[in-house]
Design a protein that fits this description.
single chain; 202 residues; alpha+beta; 5 helices
Length: 202
């Protein structure tokens, strides 16, 4: 029942977004992410492809802040990570070959969106709890979908996607809804953000 209400309300929020004059752009060079955003039905969301933004070697919050700075005004950026046993793996896209090391462990699929506008950067975060299981990786898999089992479920995100059910659980969709409603988690003054002096992810 709760899941149905959440899905129904989410669709209402998206319809509201489609019916108003808000217009956003989001940067992603990942075709799988692009497909998901298109599937959400956000007609006012323009997807900018082919541009990669450097990611700092810091916390997930630092990653999204500096991606927002580089992207510029009114462009949404995304960072998706795994948290394993309370430890952030911010460079998960470079660690996918090591997922076998996390089998049986509690995991959190965390998506954070950043938007710079009018001198501020706002961040919007959503999380999905679950665990990592030893499952053979399909050829058409996206990221860690094949081995991430949402809490209290028996199917992986990959399997749920094949059944047309992944969006019920998607932290990506929940994060974009928070952005639409301006339900930000943190807000930063752009002029107060110091230049990044640390390393960048590979």
């Amino acid at each position: 029942y709760f899941l149905f209400v959440l899905w129904y309300n989410t669709d209402l929020w998206i319809k509201t977004f489609k019916g108003n004059k808000m217009s956003f752009k989001i940067i992603s060079s990942n075709q799988n992410k692009i497909n998901e955003y298109k599937r959400f039905g956000l007609s006012n969301l323009e997807i900018l492809t082919g541009k990669d933004i450097r990611e700092v070697a810091g916390t997930s919050e630092e990653v999204i802040i500096y991606k927002s700075l580089e992207a510029g005004e009114d462009i949404i950026v995304e960072d998706a990570i795994l948290i394993i046993d309370c430890v952030e793996i911010v460079d998960i896209k470079y660690q996918l070959q090591n997922l076998d090391n996390f089998i049986g462990k509690h995991a959190v699929f965390k998506v954070t969106l950043g938007l710079q506008s009018n001198g501020f950067i706002k961040t919007f975060t959503s999380e999905l709890h679950g665990n990592i299981q030893n499952i053979k990786k399909p050829e058409d898999n996206f990221g860690f979908d094949y081995c991430f089992i949402p809490k209290n479920k028996t199917k992986s995100l990959y399997e749920l996607d094949k059944l047309g059910l992944k969006d019920f659980y998607s932290p990506r969709k929940k994060a974009i809804v928070k952005l639409i409603l301006d339900k930000f988690d943190n807000e930063y003054i752009v002029n107060d953000i110091k230049p990044w002096t640390g390393n960048y992810q590979i």
